[in-house]
Amino acid sequence: MDNLDLDKLTENNQERDYFYQFDRHMHGFMLRTFLPYFPDKPNKALELGCFEGAFSTLIQSHFSQLTLVEGAKQAAEKTRHLLSSYCSTSSVEVICERFERLQLNQQFDCIFLLHVLEHIEMPNKLLQRIKRWLAPEGKFFVACPNAMAASRQIAVKMELISAPEAVTDGERLHGHYRTYALDTLSTEVNNAGFAIIESGGICFKPLANFQLDKAFEQKIIDDAFLEGCFKLGDVYPELCASIFVVATLPE
User: Fold this and answer.
1) Please, are residues 82 and 57 in contact by the beta-carbon 8 Å criterion?
2) 3, 96 in Cβ contact below 8 A?
3) Positive or negative CA dihedral for 106, 107, 112, 116?
4) At residue 248, what are phi and psi to the nearest 5 degrees?
5) Closest C-alpha among 108, 102, 2, 119 to residue 51
6) For a tag site, which of 19, 57, 95, 122 has the least CB within 10 Å?
7) Tens-digit pLDDT profile for residues 78-114
8) pLDDT of 19 strictly over 90
9) d(Cα 58, Cα 40) in Å, to the nearest integer?
């Protein structure tokens, strides 16, 4: 699949409204989850698979240098346009390239791989490359949609999904190869040779994305409700919307 194919995939996703308003709330929750692990001084960060830069805009002020990589040309261009409009103290570079062809001649203090690993056919290959790009004391942040989210388990009981870890037709069209649970994500990262220092869930998820969006639009729920879900995620990480690990290179 070349860059043109990725552009086509992006167009198809927009037609299906794959990205929901709830996903945009999740970006803020991810930042709050990861922020305690950021370096004390603004340093260099790499975000792989930045899409259109929504999360990038949240982290750009925390780093003196930010490198963003996106394989779809249209999404990369949107990211460039978006980041150029932000008043920032950081230097931002947007690279349009597929991960397997990506050449980076530097190391980074933080590397972000958010809702990307499930799209990678051979994840261990990418994780091995990331090890080379991570600075000796750097932090690697990985997040994926959670197979065991409460909403997904409800869908299984409704017989809408065959099993929590199943890849749905919509996910397959979006380019998913697998659906991770917290244990399988941790195993994937451990098997690549990283040392996990923290793992958990981000935002308890009682409803599907489209249901949350509809409830939000109709004012059935509000920001306070989602804030409660975010806090409840600390209690029930296995039922959250996303799962995450923070990892380092082994000593």
Assistant:
1) yes
2) yes
3) positive
4) -135, 175
5) 119
6) 122
7) 999 998 877 666 799 999 999 999 999 999 999 999 9
8) no
9) 17
Q: What is the CA radius of gyration of the chain?
A: 17
- Whole-angstrom CA distances from 111 to 9, 16, 66, 171, 245 are 25, 29, 10, 25, 12
Q: Which helix (H) or strand (E) holds 220?
A: none
β-pair partners for 70: 96
Q: Which residue intervals of the chain are DSSP H helices? A: 3-15, 21-34, 54-59, 73-84, 123-133, 150-157, 169-173, 182-191, 209-217, 223-232
For residue 31, count CB atoms less than 10 angstroms from its CB and return exposed for 0-12, middle for 13-18, buried for 19 or more.
middle
Instruction: Report residue 3 as tokens.
Output: 């860059």
CB 172 within 8 A of CB 119: no
Rounded CA-CA distance 242/168 in Å is: 17
| Measured distance CA(233)–CA(134) in Å, rounded | 28
Helix (H) or strand (E) holding 208: none
pLDDT tens for 118-160 read 999 999 999 999 999 999 999 999 999 999 999 999 999 999 9
Question: What per-residue string of b and e applies to 146-185 under the rule 16 or more CB within 10 Å gives b?
Answer: bbbbbbbbebbeeeebeeeeebeeebeebbbebbbbbeeb
Nearest CA to 173 out of 2, 18, 7 is that of: 18
Task: At 206, list the tokens.
Answer: 């009682």
Cα–Cα dist 69/50, whole Å = 6
Q: What is the DSSP letter of 167?
A: P
Cα 80 from chain centre? 19
**In the block, which residue shows the tokens 């091995």?**
128
